[in-house]
Every structure is written in structure tokens, then in C-alpha cells.
Task: structure prediction
Amino acid sequence: MVPPGNRLLIRQGGAADLGAVLRVCEMHAEYWDGRLRSEIGLSAFFERALNEQDEVFQFWVAENGQGSVVGWEMLSAFTGDPASRRLTGETTTALGRPSASLGRTLATHAVRHAARTPLQYLFARVPTRDFLMVSVLESVGYHEVGVIPPSSKSPARPEQLEFVYVVEG
Result:
């Protein structure tokens, strides 16, 4: 039996989770190029993501046994093109602590959800230096399809790998 403190609950996020989602984001502040989250509208972005979910595009939080949010997964539209908007999604995973098992659990949750929707492809981008998430994505069936070169233009962005997952129904 798993002790209650070690249990993980993945549930759909809501407006009340905004503060916890932002705290998890703080663990990844190096990707913001030294800017404050208020400068890039992070709070407004995640508030919108949490409030505008539908049957396809959703936001999940992972809670530990004490009810603290330890990570989240967002499935959003990859494109605004109405012809293909419901066919391709983009996944983003954020972990409050480095944990391959937590990353796999969240990524697998999104893949299983996508199989119950019209989505055909899931895309994910991770910095090449994020070895943990690269291995997580590969372990759940994503395939690397390209490299996005770094940008020195402000805001600077690191080199990223692009992955695709083919959703089977």
C-alpha cells in the first residue's frame, strides 16, 4: 500500500489553482530571460488557460498526498487555424521538482486524454539542456522531429527540441 503522503492525484485545474501553478513556474524562471512574471503576463496567461478549458484543451495539476501542487500539464491548441485547430495540440509540462516519474505520469495523462478526442498529433518543445524532460517525452512515445535554434534577440531563448506524438484512437 502506498502511504497517503506519497500518493499523487492528477485533477483538472481551475481558477483557484493559479497561485500554485505560478509557484511551479518559478522553478523554471531561467527560461524567462531574467524578466519578472508580471513583465511577460504570466499570471494573465495561466488565468486564461485555467478558465478557458473545453472538452479537448485542458489543464491538469498534480497534487501530492498533502494537497500541494507539485507539477502541471497543459494541453493547448497548436494553431489558430480553424481547419486544423482541433487536430493538433501542444503539451507543456512543468515540474515543481525534478522527477522523471512525475513527468511521465503527467505526459501519459495528456496522451490518454488526447486519445479520447479528435486530436491526431501532440507537439512538445523542451530546451535541449532539459535532459529529464527529453527522456520523459521519449519514454511515453514522443519522437524528436527537429531542433529550434537559439535566439539571441530579446527575449533570448535557448535551443529547443521539438517532439511529436501521433495520437492513436
User: Anything to note?
Assistant: The longest helix spans residues 100-115. The chain has a mean pLDDT of 88. The domain at 4-166 is CATH 3.40.630.30 (Aminopeptidase). Residues 84 and 130 are 29 Å apart (CA to CA).
